[in-house]
Target: tRNA (guanine(26)-N(2))-dimethyltransferase
Amino acid sequence: MAEDLQDYTVIKEGEAEILMNIKNQVFFNKAQVNNRDLSIAVLRTFISKRQEEHGAMLSKRKKSAEKASEKDASGPAVEEASTESALDNEKSNGECEVHEEISQDEPCSISEEPVKNSEGNHHGELKPPRVLEALSASGLRALRYAREVEGIGKVVALDNDKASVEACQKNIKFNGSVAISKVESHLADARVYMLTHPKEFDVVDLDPYGSPSVFLDSAVQSVVDGGMLMCTATDMAVLCGGNGEVCYSKYGSYPLRGKYCHEMALRILLASIESHANRYKRYIVPILSVQMNFYVRVFVRVYTSASAMKNTPLKLSYVYQCIGCDSYHLQPIGRTMSKGSSVRYLPGFGPVVPQECSDCGKKYNMGGPIWSAPIHDQEWVTSVLEGVKSMKDQYPAYDRISAVLTTISEELPDVPLFLSLHNLCATLKCTSPSAVIFRSAVINAGYRISGTHVNPLGLKSDAPMDVIWDIMRCWVRLMSKVFLPVLPDRSSLIAPFDLRKVKNHPVKAQAPDQAGSIILAKEPILKANFARAVASLSKAQAKKIARFLPNPERHWGPKLRAGRQITTKHISLLGPEAVNGHLNHEISEEPKAKRPKTGDANDPTSSS
Model:
């Protein structure tokens, strides 16, 4: 290795160090430090929760065993009384005694049998979780898991590229005894490996270059019951509606190009994972779903239950998006009807919208199905955030992941998708109110509203679209009457500011058939109250906690796929310094690689 060190650079991230070849033979992206840090934080919380769940299960089984033993103790007295009262029929009495004896022995054997857990341990001890990194490349993620996550078991790193596996094995040795004892590297197709190791791993991590769709079917089979699947998708152009037909072929959902497209990408990915899990009588429970930088990342628990799987249609919906304004509506796929203790599963009622939008009269585009149930578990989010804050020195990207988790902790969990205040104002061609004023109006109308981690301008609310447009109509009317010589009676429009100090920004004229003109032509039914509400600012905003941070450096985004030749056309991805440095290195090596041939007397083409 000493001879080749001039071709390598040492990269340190967290407690792991790797040797990276400067020729782009193995993929590495510095920007994914956010992804790796967040994965480590969730993995630490998973191990803690897993231990708590195992302790609760042992306690429950112990109580069941105690109840069974108490029942066994009272059994002989009942048997003796029944024997004395039935001496006249010895044969039938003997048969009854045998039957009772067997029925008493069964719970006794359960109580005396050592408790088994999901890993097959007969002593009630929980084995360390096994982790599979299906697409390891340099192995940096697997090495960080092994060196930084306390209580972790074996980490299996896979790749079907020989150069990547050799680099991973080299990095395992480079990181010392802890990495050598915990991390394995194999040259294998991840799909085949996961299919041949069903329900064997407590955690499966998928972080492919592009779409994870081809790995999902085998991944949901490889996770143990109650295990965790971590999945990344970087094909955002497809998931966000750039190629809707491609998205449908890969994920089984049709995307829409709205301001909420990145959250819709998360929900499409979750719906696809649920679809693959359902084929094996399994279902998922999302614990954290994040959109960061140029990718989406979801963390889900996988469980097995044929009865719970029936609830899947209740968690999926189609989306109707108006092509003229920002109105959108969700159509659930299924519904339930309860009668006594029985539950019937039925198709959902529909359609939820008329042929034309009730707000602007335009047509609807239809997308989906998407996951319309909560995409986060707020208890998990709080636990992960507390763990990150307590170990802030161990996360290189602490500022970024703590900001994202803080914003997620304040999201409305039961409201799919979101609105953009600037888009609403663009439709009406009016000046935008501040987020605080708009939030106050929604809260004063009796509805909930929050931000979203996906977009700093996005607003999640359970208010229906007719209420949203009524608030905007009232805002436009308020702004259009500011500088009248004699102010009219505006008792129904309560403002938190002095109207005489507001600049006059009238609504720009539109054609009568435009969506904005049609919306403003209607009289508002709701009289908006713009007085500042107490909850108009979130706790993080009130404390002035940073929630949306800029990228730490330029060209912080996706990188070139491993093995491709770096040229000047990749400056937008890698930056001029990286590209020029690589090209200069190639030029310096060129005389060695392509040394001119010396003249040969026997060669007729050589000049004398």
Q: What stands out?
A: The chain has a mean pLDDT of 83. Residues 337 and 344 are 5 Å apart (CA to CA). The longest strand covers residues 223-233.
